[in-house]
């Protein structure tokens, strides 16, 4: 009898606990948006994109995607691409591209050919975009170890196969400098000084690892020769570096110290031109018990640690900073078939991660008072590949993926960033230190206010790739004008702005019909929930109630 009573007591306790947990899980998250408390300008740090394969730029799907990227932002979009000086015939491959800009004749005299690199930059400029012009990699004729030159890397192969003759220092720094000078000079002649002044130039990529098969001093020497050549061709050009990897704070520190305090290899004076500082930041997803688990914290720590290095130097307080690659992990061309941890890329996991992580990038910038102007999403498109192969791309075969719609949402957010509080948003320190790993999801917000509009982005994110039904969220907005306000709700979830779910419902065809492609293209656009509605605002406040599933992202756009 005593055992029975004890068992009943335990069962009642378990039932009460289960009910409490259920009530906690389903109780509404509450966001409070104060339009009267401004934090800082809405810098379009989202409007920066990049990719390894520059020859995709002017191909069919590449041009289509660039047109869409240019259209989503109210300001010019910056584009960064590798291999702009790499030797070859322009045939693209994964993690490869070439322009053949520099060769030498039989006597060793330089031969410049800007045909392909012009085709790349023309594609940007025609769309009002700006190059974040990466000066690299080493032409075959200048490399100290030219053979083998073109790599034969494929997804699943060791990454070490990527780094071949293009990654080595030049055998002649003067010839390298002349190549850079001629390139920048040619750009000013083709596009005009004013246009080229609006670009940024930067040297190499991840020189702290095998993308640079030289030493740190050799990179610093190359930077001095490069920066001097850029400034000789156009004194008002903006030049920077060094695009070190996420864990390379010591390399970045040495680079900054050199630019500020060391003797220049070319001028023999102290310092080197520095108009822009760049570094990289990557997350680290893994498969745990058959499920992808993201690690946003790793990416956020990369950013925080690099920003702290920059903050050591008071003279760099206002210098523009760009996260030259800022992504959930490190290999865009590694699809989910060879790298199952990358299976997050096709659906709403990627889009909700992007919303939640970009909000923290702004917060880290605010915390240190630095001038972050860009965060390059190293994600573009891969021409003529399988549909939804799980590459880190924004579109597949010309069809936009859900993640692209987050950038469309950001493009609708202008003016000043304003204060947002949420009872379910992870504190910045917790997100940086431990990622988004606790039992509850991260229901957070990011908001802006302009003269005649306001916008609130809301997400429901967790590192564990798991679907869950929609939960109620209350968004209270204060500081609105009284009277009629028009509310438009945009949404990314499994039912809206999601070409991947539509493709799966079609049976995942690898050769979709024209009608199916048209349907997928439509599904890839940013969708609204119903029609716009009129809110009758009194006392400057309104409550908006939405239901948002796990991995969903909403944008509440208010106009008056």
TrEMBL record:
Molecular function per GO: hydrolase activity, hydrolyzing O-glycosyl compounds
UniProt-listed InterPro entries: GH, GH39_cat, Glyco_hydro_39, Glycosyl_Hydrolase_39
Signal sequence, renumbered to the chain: 1-22
Active site annotation, chain numbering: 206 (proton donor)
Domain annotation Glycosyl hydrolases family 39 N-terminal catalytic: ranges: 100-523
Presence of the UniProt keyword Glycoprotein in the record: no
Gene Ontology process terms (BP): carbohydrate metabolic process
Keywords: Glycosidase, Hydrolase, Signal
Pfam families in the record: Glyco_hydro_39
Lyase found in the keyword field: no
Superkingdom of origin: Bacteria
Record-stated family: Belongs to the glycosyl hydrolase 39 family.
PANTHER family: ALPHA-L-IDURONIDASE
Name listed for the protein in its UniProt record: Beta-xylosidase
Classification lineage: Bacteria, Pseudomonadati, Bacteroidota, Cytophagia, Cytophagales
């Amino acid at each position: 009898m005593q055992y029975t009573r004890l068992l009943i007591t335990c069962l009642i306790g378990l039932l009460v606990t289960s009910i409490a947990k259920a009530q906690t899980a389903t109780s509404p998250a509450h966001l409070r948006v104060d339009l009267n408390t401004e934090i800082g300008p809405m810098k379009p740090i989202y409007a920066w994109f990049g990719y390894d394969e520059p020859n995709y730029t002017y191909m069919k799907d590449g041009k289509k995607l660039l047109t869409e990227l240019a259209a989503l932002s109210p300001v010019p979009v910056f584009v960064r691409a590798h291999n702009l000086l790499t030797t070859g015939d322009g045939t693209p491959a994964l993690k490869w591209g070439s322009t053949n800009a520099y060769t030498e004749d039989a006597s060793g005299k330089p031969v410049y050919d800007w045909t392909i690199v012009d085709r790349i930059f023309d594609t940007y400029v025609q769309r009002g975009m700006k190059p974040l012009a990466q000066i690299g990699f080493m032409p075959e004729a200048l490399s100290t170890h030219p053979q083998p030159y073109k790599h034969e890397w494929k997804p699943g192969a060791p990454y070490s196969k990527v780094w071949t003759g293009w990654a080595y220092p030049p055998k002649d720094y003067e010839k390298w400098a002349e190549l850079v000078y001629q390139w920048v000079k040619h750009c000013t002649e083709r596009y005009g000084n004013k246009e080229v002044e609006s670009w940024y130039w930067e040297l190499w990529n991840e020189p702290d690892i095998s993308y640079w098969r030289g030493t740190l001093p050799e990179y610093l020497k190359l930077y001095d020769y490069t920066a001097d050549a850029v400034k000789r061709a156009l004194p008002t050009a903006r030049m920077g570096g060094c695009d070190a990897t996420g864990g390379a704070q010591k390399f970045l520190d040495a680079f900054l110290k050199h630019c500020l305090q060391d003797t220049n290899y070319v001028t023999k004076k102290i310092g080197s031109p520095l108009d822009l500082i760049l570094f990289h930041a990557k997350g680290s997803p893994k498969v745990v018990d058959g499920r992808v688990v993201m690690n946003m914290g790793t990416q956020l720590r990369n950013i925080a640690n690099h920003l702290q290095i920059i903050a050591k130097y008071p003279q760099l307080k206002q210098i523009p900073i760009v996260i030259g690659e800022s992504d959930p992990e490190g290999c865009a061309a590694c699809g989910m078939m060879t790298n199952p941890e990358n299976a997050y890329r096709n659906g709403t996991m990627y889009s909700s991660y992007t919303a939640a992580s970009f909000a923290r990038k702004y917060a880290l910038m605010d915390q240190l008072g630095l001038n972050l102007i860009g965060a390059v999403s190293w994600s573009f498109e891969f021409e003529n590949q399988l549909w939804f192969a799980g590459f880190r791309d924004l579109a597949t075969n010309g069809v936009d993926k859900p993640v692209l719609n987050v950038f469309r949402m950001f493009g609708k957010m202008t003016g000043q960033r304003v204060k947002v509080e949420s009872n379910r948003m992870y504190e910045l320190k917790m997100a940086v230190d431990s990622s988004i790993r606790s039992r509850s999801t991260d229901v957070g917000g990011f908001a802006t206010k302009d003269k005649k509009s306001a916008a609130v982005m809301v997400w429901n994110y967790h590192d564990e790739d798991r679907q869950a039904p929609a939960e109620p969220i209350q968004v209270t907005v204060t500081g609105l004008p009284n009277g009629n306000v028009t509310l438009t709700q945009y949404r990314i979830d499994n039912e809206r702005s999601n070409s991947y779910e539509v493709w799966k419902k079609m049976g995942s065809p690898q050769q979709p019909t024209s009608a199916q492609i048209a349907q997928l293209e439509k599904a890839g656009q940013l969708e609204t929930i119903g029609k716009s509605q009129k809110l009758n605002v009194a006392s400057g406040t309104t409550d908006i109630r939405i239901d948002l599933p796990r991995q969903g992202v909403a944008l509440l756009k208010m106009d008056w």
